[in-house]
UniProtKB/TrEMBL annotation:
SMART domains: PKS_ER
An example Gene Ontology molecular-function term: zinc ion binding
Keywords: Metal-binding, Oxidoreductase, Zinc
Name of protein: Cinnamyl-alcohol dehydrogenase ELI3-2 Cad
PROSITE patterns assigned to the protein according to its UniProt record, in alphabetical order: ADH_ZINC
Species of the source: Helicobacter trogontum
InterPro entries: ADH-like_C, ADH-like_N, ADH_Zn_CS, CAD-like, ER, GroES-like_sf, NAD(P)-bd_dom_sf
C-alpha cells in the first residue's frame, strides 16, 4: 500500500510520505514516526529501504552527545535497498537496481573538496549528512535517516550495488567500511607494513580486514581478550589489552575507540615517520585531548583525524569488499528491537553489527 502511494507521489512531484522510527528528545526511546521526504528532483532516486545498519554514531547523535540533535530524529546512515522510482535525468540507476546510501546525501559540488570527491569536507560547509542535519538544498528541512521505509537521494550520492550482493552486509560497509578503508588508503598501507588497530568493535573489525587485505601485519588493542579467538581466526598477529604491554613499533595505527583514552600512549608506539589515524569519536564531555608536549617529544610522527570518505572512494571500497568478500559480522533485528540494540551497544554487549530488517516496519 505504502509503496504504491510513494510511486504516485513520485510521479506527481509531491512530497514522499515515509514511516520510520524516531526519538523525540535525547533521553527518549524509539517509537514509530510518520513524516515526509522532499519531492523527487530530476536527478533523484527513490529507494525502498530493505536494511539499515545501526552505527555507534547513531547513538551519540540520538543522545545529543556531539551536538544538540534535531528532533524528532530518525537515525541511520548505513542504508541498502531497491530503487523504485527515478527522476528524468538519472543515468546511473534504473528501477529495480540495488542501491546504497551512506553518511551524506548532498554537497555544493563546486568547491575544491567536492571536485575531488571529498564531499564530506565541502569547503562551503554544505555537506548534508543523511540525518540530524538541515538540508540547505531543500528549504532547510531536517534530513531523516535509514530507520525508515524509504529515502529520496540525488543519484550522485547513491552507491551502486550489484544484484547478487548480500544487502544486509552491504549496509554497514557504507559507514564502518569506508571509515576504516579511507585512512588505510590515505596512509598508503602496503604489503609488510606493521599496522595496529585500537578498539575491536564494528569499526575495528573492518579495519583489521582491510589492513590484512592490503597485506599488512596486523595487531589489535582491545579492552579484553574475549575476542582473542576471533582475532586469531582472522590472522591477527597479537592482541594487547593495554599499550604498556606492547613492545612492537608500528608504521600505522588506526584508533576506532569511541570512549576517552590517552592518544599519546599510542603515538609512543609509532615508528619514526609513522602515522596514526583517529576515526573513533568519544562524546565531547570526555574531553579526549592530545598532549602537545608529548607530541613534540614524539617528533617525526603524524596524527590525523579521518571522517568517512568521499563518494568515489566509497564506491571503490564497496566494489573491493564485494569482490573480496570483506564483510562485517551482522545480526539482523526488527524495528521493535532497536531500543534493546542501543542498550547492548552502550553496555558493550553487542557482538556484531546490528542491521534492521525494514520489512519488520510494516508487520
Ligand atoms: Zn556511522
Ligand atoms: Zn563543496
Amino acid at each position: 500500500m505504502l509503496l504504491q502511494d510513494n510511486l504516485t507521489q513520485a510521479k506527481n512531484g509531491e512530497k514522499i510520505s515515509a514511516r520510520g522510527y524516531a526519538v523525540t528528545h535525547k533521553d527518549d526511546t524509539f517509537k514509530p514516526f510518520d513524516f515526509t521526504r522532499h519531492a523527487m528532483g530530476e536527478n533523484d532516486i527513490l529507494i525502498e529501504i530493505l536494511y539499515a545498519g545501526i552505527c555507534h554514531s547513531d547513538i551519540h547523535s540520538a543522545r545529543s552527545e556531539w551536538k544538540d540533535g534535531i528532533y524528532p530524529m530518525v537515525p541511520g546512515h548505513e542504508i541498502a535497498g531497491r530503487v523504485v522510482a527515478i527522476g528524468n535525468k538519472v543515468s546511473k540507476f534504473k528501477v529495480g537496481d540495488y542501491a546504497g546510501v551512506g553518511c551524506m546525501v548532498n554537497s555544493c559540488g563546486e568547491c575544491e573538496a567536492c571536485k575531488q570527491s571529498q564531499e564530506q569536507f565541502c569547503e562551503n560547509g554544505k555537506t548534508i549528512f543523511t540525518y540530524d542535519c538541515l538540508d540547505c538544498f531543500h528549504d532547510n528541512t531536517p534530513t531523516y535517516g535509514g530507520y525508515s521505509n524509504n529515502i529520496v537521494v540525488s543519484e550522485k550520492f547513491a552507491l551502486q550495488v550489484p544484484q547478487d550482493a548480500p544487502l544486509e552486509k552491504v549496509a554497514p560497509l557504507l559507514c564502518a567500511g569506508i571509515t576504516t578503508y579511507s585512512p588505510l588508503k590515505f596512509s598508503k598501507i602496503k604489503k609488510g607494513d606493521k599496522v595496529a588497530v585500537a578498539g575491536f568493535g564494528g569499526l575495528g573489525l573492518m579495519a583489521v580486514k582491510y589492513a590484512l587485505y592490503l597485506g599488512a601485519e596486523v595487531s589489535i588493542f582491545a579492552r579484553n581478550t574475549l575476542k582473542m579467538q576471533e582475532a586469531k581466526n582472522l590472522g591477527v598477529k597479537a592482541l594487547y589489552t593495554d599499550t604498556s604491554e606492547c613492545r612492537e613499533r608500528f608504521d600505522f595505527i588506526i584508533s576506532t575507540i569511541p570512549t576517552a583514552y590517552d592518544v599519546n600512549n599510542y603515538v609512543d608506539l609509532l615508528k619514526f615517520g609513522g602515522e596514526m589515524a583517529i576515526v573513533g569519536l568519544p562524546p565531547v564531555e570526555l574531553k579526549t585531548h592530545i598532549d602537545v608536549t608529548r607530541l613534540v617529544f614524539s617528533a617525526g610522527k603524524k596524527v590525523y583525524g579521518s571522517l568517512i570518505g568521499g563518494i568515489q572512494e566509497t564506491q571503490e571500497m564497496l566494489d573491493i569488499s564485494l569482490k573480496e568478500g570483506i564483510y562485517p559480522e551482522v545480526e539482523i533485528i526488527g524495528v521493535n528491537d532497536i531500543n534493546k540494540a542501543y542498550e547492548n551497544l552502550t553496555n558493550g554487549k553487542a557482538k556484531f553489527r546490528y542491521v534492521i530488517d525494514m520489512k519488520s516496519l510494516e508487520g
